[in-house]
Design brief:
Elements (H helix, E strand, L loop, with lengths): L1 H17 L9 H4 L6 E7 L9 E6 L4 E6 L5 E4 L11 E6 L3 E8 L8 E9 L1
Parallel strand pairs: 1-7
Antiparallel strand pairs: 1-4, 2-3, 2-5, 6-7
Length: 124
C-alpha cells in the first residue's frame, strides 16, 4: 500500500512541475516582451574569477538601477529588460571590496542575442 501511495504522490508532484508550478522554467509571456539578456563574469587582472562581486545595471534614460551579485564562480545573469529599453543604453558595472575597476567589455547588442559582459577588477 505504501508503494501505491508513494507512486501517486510522485505523480502529483510531477504534474505540478509540468504545469510550471514548481520549476524554474521560462515565463513565455514575460520573455516575448523582453529584450536581450546580459550575462558575464567578473575577474581580477590575473584572470581569476571573483565570487560575490556586486553587479550594477543602470538605465540612465529611465533613472533605474538593478543591483545583483555574481555567483561563487564570478558569473552573473540579468534577464532582458522591456523591449522599449535599448540594450546599448544599459550600463553594467562591477565592484568588490578591496578591488577597483580597471576594464569592462560589453559586447554590442545584435538583435535578441544575449549580450556578454566581462568586468576586470584590480587589487587596491
Amino acid at each position: 500500500m505504501r508503494g501505491i501511495f508513494a507512486a501517486g504522490f510522485a505523480l502529483t508532484l510531477a504534474s505540478a512541475a509540468w504545469a510550471g508550478g514548481s520549476t524554474f522554467g521560462s515565463d513565455e509571456a514575460d520573455d516575448k516582451d523582453a529584450g536581450p539578456p546580459f550575462f558575464g563574469v567578473v575577474k581580477d587582472k590575473d584572470g581569476k574569477t571573483l565570487a560575490d562581486a556586486k553587479i550594477t545595471a543602470t538605465i540612465a534614460k529611465s533613472n533605474s538601477t538593478l543591483v545583483l551579485r555574481a555567483d561563487s564562480q564570478g558569473h552573473f545573469f540579468v534577464r532582458g529588460f522591456d523591449k522599449s529599453i535599448d540594450p546599448n543604453d544599459v550600463a553594467i558595472s562591477c565592484s568588490k571590496d578591496g578591488y577597483h575597476a580597471t576594464a569592462g567589455v560589453k559586447a554590442p547588442a545584435t538583435g535578441s542575442a544575449p549580450i556578454e559582459v566581462i568586468c576586470v577588477l584590480d587589487h587596491e
